[in-house]
Amino acid sequence: MNAHRFRWWTALAVLTLALAALTAAGCGDDDDDDGGGGGGGDESQALQKLGKGEGEVNLVAWAGYVEDGSTDPNADWVTGFEKETGCQVNVKIGNTSDEMVTLMRTGKYDGVSASGDATLRLVAGGDVDPVNTDLIPNYKDVFPALKDQPHNTVDGVPYGVPHGRGANLLMYNKDVVKEAPDSWDVVWGGAESEPYAGKVTAYDNPIYIADAALFLRETNPDLGIENVYELDDKQFDAVVDLLRQQREVIGEYWSDYTKEISAFTSGDSVVGTTWQVITNLVQADKKAPPVEAILPREGSTGWSDTWMISSEAEHPNCMYMWMNHIVSPEANAAVAEWYGEAPANQKSCEMTDNEDHCEIYHADDEEYFDQVEYWTTPTKDCGDDRGDACKDYSEWVKAWTEIKG
Amino acid sequence: MDASAASHRKPAGRGLAGFLYRRRRLRLSLLLAGPVGWLVIAYLGSLAVLFIAAFWQLDDFSGEIVQDPGFQNFKELIETPVYRSIVGRTVLIAALVTLTDAILAFPIAFYMAKVASPRARGLLVVAVLMPLWASYLVKVYTWRIMLQNDGVVNWLLDPLGIDGPGFGNVATWLVFSYLWLPFMVLPIYAGLERIPNSMLDASGDLGGHPWITFRRVVFPLALPAVVAGSIFTFSLTLGDYIAPTLVSSTQFIGNVVYSNVGVANNLPLAAAFATVPVLIMLVYLLIARRMGAFEEL
What we know:
The complex is a heterodimer. By secondary structure, chain A is of the alpha/beta class. Chain A folds into 2 domains: 185 residues, D-Maltodextrin-Binding Protein, domain 2, CATH 3.40.190.10; 133 residues, D-Maltodextrin-Binding Protein, domain 2 (3-Layer(aba) Sandwich), CATH 3.40.190.10. Chain A has 13 helices and 15 strands. In chain A, helix 3 runs parallel beside helix 4, helix 5 crosses helix 6 and helix 6 packs parallel to helix 13. The N and C termini of chain A lie far apart (52 Å). The radius of gyration of chain B is 26 Å and the shape is globular. The chains are: A alpha/beta, B mainly alpha. Chains A and B meet through helix 1, helix 3, strand 10, helix 7 and helix 13 of A and helix 3, helix 5 and helix 13 of B.
C-alpha cells in the first residue's frame, strides 16, 4: 500500500516539474513575441483619414469620466454619442495611473484617459499612438495652455487630446483648525502640525512624494529643487526624510476618495490633501463638519488628463470619434461638472449647469494653474545638466513602501 | 482469450465496459484524470509559475520583465529593512490573532460540545456560522464605523476617560480576530465532541479537580483540534491585505505584493515576496502535522 502511494506522489511531482518547465519555456516565447510587437510602435503613425465607425470602442478611464446614466440618470454623455456614431462604448475603470498603464499594456483597449504620470510611460512603452488632431474638429477650442505640454506631446508630436485639469488642494476642518492655514506646513509634521497629530491625512501613492518636494522647494532653497518630479539623490533623501517626519502625525492615508470623505465626515482626519470633488461632497453633507479647501501659497501638485489612443486599437475610428466627442463643449462641460474639475474646451464654460463652474475651478485662470505642478512620470533623465542622476519611478515606489513602513 | 472475446458480437457500450473492467489501472486513471489534472495544472501549475517568476527581474529602463534568472529579488527582500519589518509585523499579528481566537473559541466550543442541550447547541452552531453569511467587506466596514472618531467604541470608552484604539495595528488585530473566530470554534468543537464523556467522569472519579481534568485530560486531547483551527486563523491573516487598508495604514505582506503588481508593475519582486507566506505556511503545516492536527481536519 505504501509503495503504491509513493508511486502516485512521484508521478505527481514529476508531472508538476514537467509542467513548470513547459510553462517557463512557453512564457519565454510569448514575451519575446510581445517585445517584438511593442518595438513596432516606434514606426507607428497617426491615423490619416477617418473611416466608418467599427461599432464599438473599449476605454480605460477614471471613475466618473465615462457616464451613460447608470450611476446617476442626470450624468449621461455617452448614450447620445452611441446613437449618433453607432459606437457602443465599453468602459473599464482604472483606480490609479499605474493600473491604467497595466491595463493598456494588455492591448485589449482602444483608448485611455491618462494622467500625466501615466502618459509618458505609455508613450515610452509604445503602447499609444500619436494623434492626428486634424481629425478632431473640437481640438481647436481646447485652452491653448493645455496643448503641447510636456506630458501630452513628445518631440512636437501630440499624443492625445486634453480632457480637463485640477489641483490637489489643502482641505481642513474649520471646527478644529481654527486659524485658516495658507501653507502646507500644517501637514508636514513640524511645529505647525503638532496640534493635529494623528489627524493628518495624505494621498497614498508614490506620486505624493512630489508634494513633499514642492514644500521643500520653498522652505529649503539650498536643495535647489526646480522640478518636483526630477529629484537627484540629495534632494530625494531630504524629501523622504520630510515624509518620514509626516508619517508620525498621519492618522491614515487615502487613495480611495470615498475613504477620505468618510474620514473627514467622522473627524478622523482634520487636515490634509484633497481633490475639489471631495470637498464638494463633504460640504454637501449636512452632518459633516464644516470644511474648506485652499491652494496654499507654495502652490500644489495637480493633474491634467489626456485621452490617448492605443497603438493596438481595434476600433481606431470609433476612438477618434470618442476623443472628438469628449472634448465637445456639451460633453466636456458635463464631465467637468460631474467630476469636479476644470474643462479643457473653452466653450464648455457657457454650457455648465452652474454658471460659475469655470470660475470655481479656475478653468481659464492661467495664473492659478501656473502654481500647479502637473503629475508626470519621474525618470532617470533629469532633463537638465545633471544628466541621468535622478530617481526613476520604481525608486519612488520603493521609497513610498519604506516611508509607510 | 482476448481475441476470442473480441470475435463475439456485442453492443459497443458493453465492449467498452468490458474493456475497462479488465483494465483496472486505466479505469482508475481515466476517473482521476479530471480532478488530478485540475490540481496539477490550475493549482500547482500557477504556484510553479509564481515561483519561477520570482527569479526574473525588471529592466530598469523600459520597465519590462527580463527572464534572466537570479536571486536579486530575494536578496533585496532580505537586505531591505522595511520588508523584514513587514514580514515580522504580518507574522506577529497573525500569531496574536490565532492566540486570541484560541482563547475566545475554547470556552464557546467546550460549552457547545459538553454542556449545552441539543437545542442550545444547534442555536449556537447557527450563531457561530451566521457571520460567515455576511459579506467580508460589510463586516470590515462595520468595524471601521465602530472604530472611527465618532464611533461606538469611543463613545463607550469616553466615560472612562480613555480613547479608543483608532485606526492602526490594534484595529487590524481586532478585526482579524473577529473575522476568523468561526474558523477556530468549529474544529475545536468537533475535536471536543470526540472526547468521550466517560473520560471526564473517570478523571473526576480518580480525584481530579476540574482544573486537573482540563489540564491533563481535555487539553491534551483537544490540542490537535486547536492546532487545526490555528492553521485557518494564521493563514487567513497572513494572506489578507484588504482589512489592513480599510482599518489602518499599516502594510502587510499582501499590500506590498499588491502595490508591486499594480503600482510598480514589478511582478518578479511581487512573486518573490508572495513566496514568503507560502514558505511560512509550509513550516507551519509541518509542525501542525507533527502535533496531529491533520487527523482533526
